[in-house]
Specification:
The chain is α+β, with helices and mostly antiparallel strands. The chain has eight helices and 20 strands. The strands form four sheets. A six-stranded mixed β-sheet has the order 6-7-8-3-9-10, with helices on both faces. Helix 2 crosses helix 3, helix 2 runs parallel beside helix 4 and helix 3 crosses helix 4. The radius of gyration is 24 Å and the shape is elongated.
Length: about 350
């Protein structure tokens, strides 16, 4: 049974001063989904979020919410709330007053407000903080209060615009798990904007990779990482070895003069392609056992693994392994056929990946 859509963006285009930010953008979001818009600065992800929230108007296209066009409805009348990177908390109000602000505007009953504030604080693990000053809180606590203020209004959709950007690494990682827990517990749709690949891979049900106002790929974190649809996605999501290559025939690719068995078919004969091989999928072996050979030019301990570079006849390979090969060592390079990802080369500047067929 198909899952029900809650938001449908249809043919959205947006320009600023003649610069196209979104170009005939089409995307639907399911109920109770954690969907992340991921891409570099200027790719259109925040503009997409602001159009969904009603803070920007599209030049053309429609925003459909549960079957109804809400394109011209102002933000405060949409059934969604937004959490920004700058939390915009009121410094002259205590925590309870900050969280209750939206409910007071709606003239809700005092006891109802008190109960909702208490519930929201429990959800974000800040019980008993009602009377504290905003200025007494850490950055992570302020972020939780901003989320509590949003969820207390019971939105159908929560929009999050890089809300962890101001936090340090450890706190940001902790909050990634907290946000995913919250989304599951609340059972509402989260639409999250970030340029951080780790955040997207950690939290999302679905990732939408964007570049230059267009969708490059849609899929689960596993799809996006393991089966990138083009060189941009492969390069943007995690570290990778990205090579120009030639597909000689089905299941055989040539990378800089060396032939590698692979599992891909139907690319034709002698077809120029892009190849991506993840660093953790490269196996260093004895030189006599490798498909090709090379010399280790650097080796850095990264905690979980060693990060090594190997020069193979002028081609640089990036390799992650729990086993160290010292700098200067001659090694063999092997890659399993399944771990070689073959992609069509884009045709023209605006070429897009084939969309993931759902």
């Amino acid at each position: 049974m198909a899952e029900e859509k809650i938001i449908d963006l249809m043919g959205i285009s947006k320009s600023y001063d003649g610069n196209i930010v979104l170009d005939n953008f089409n995307l639907y979001i399911r109920k109770n989904e954690f969907l992340t818009l991921l891409g570099p600065s200027g790719c259109g992800k925040t503009t997409t979020l602001r159009i969904i929230g009603g803070f920007e108007n599209a030049d053309s296209g429609k925003v459909i919410f549960e079957g109804k066009d809400i394109s011209t409805i102002p933000p405060h009348k949409r059934q969604l709330n937004t959490v920004f990177q700058k939390y915009s908390l009121f410094p002259h109000m205590n925590i309870e007053e900050n969280i209750a602000f939206g409910l007071k505007v709606k003239k809700m009953d005092k006891q109802f407000i008190k109960d909702k504030v208490k519930y929201a604080l429990k959800l974000v693990n800040l019980e008993g903080f009602e009377k504290r000053s905003i200025n007494s809180l850490s950055g992570g606590q302020q972020q939780r209060i901003a989320i509590a203020r949003a969820i207390v209004n019971e939105p159908r959709v929560l929009l999050l615009d890089e809300p962890l950007g101001a936090l340090d690494l450890k706190l940001r990682q902790d909050m990634q798990y907290e946000l995913k827990r919250l989304q599951r517990e609340l059972g509402i749709t989260f639409i999250y904007v970030t340029h951080d690949q780790e955040e997207a891979l950690t939290m999302s049900d679905t990732i939408v990779v964007m570049n230059k106002g267009k969708i490059q790929q849609i899929g689960t974190p596993e799809d996006i990482y393991n089966e990138p649809k083009n060189a941009f996605v492969a390069d943007f999501i995690g570290e990778s070895n990205l090579f120009d290559a030639t597909m000689l025939q089905d299941e055989l690719v040539e990378i800089f003069g060396v032939k590698y068995p692979c599992v891909d078919k139907n690319f034709g004969i002698n077809t120029p392609v892009d190849v991506v091989i993840r660093p953790e999928d490269v196996n260093l072996v004895d030189p006599t056992d490798g498909i090709t050979t090379g010399t280790v030019t650097s080796a850095i301990f990264k905690g979980v693994h060693y990060e090594m570079t190997v020069d193979s006849f002028g081609v640089e390979w990036l390799i992650h392994s729990t086993k160290l090969s010292q700098t200067g060592t001659e090694v063999g390079i092997n890659v399993k056929p399944f771990d070689i990802q073959i992609m069509y080369k884009p045709k023209g500047e605006d070429a897009e990946a084939v969309m993931l067929d759902e």
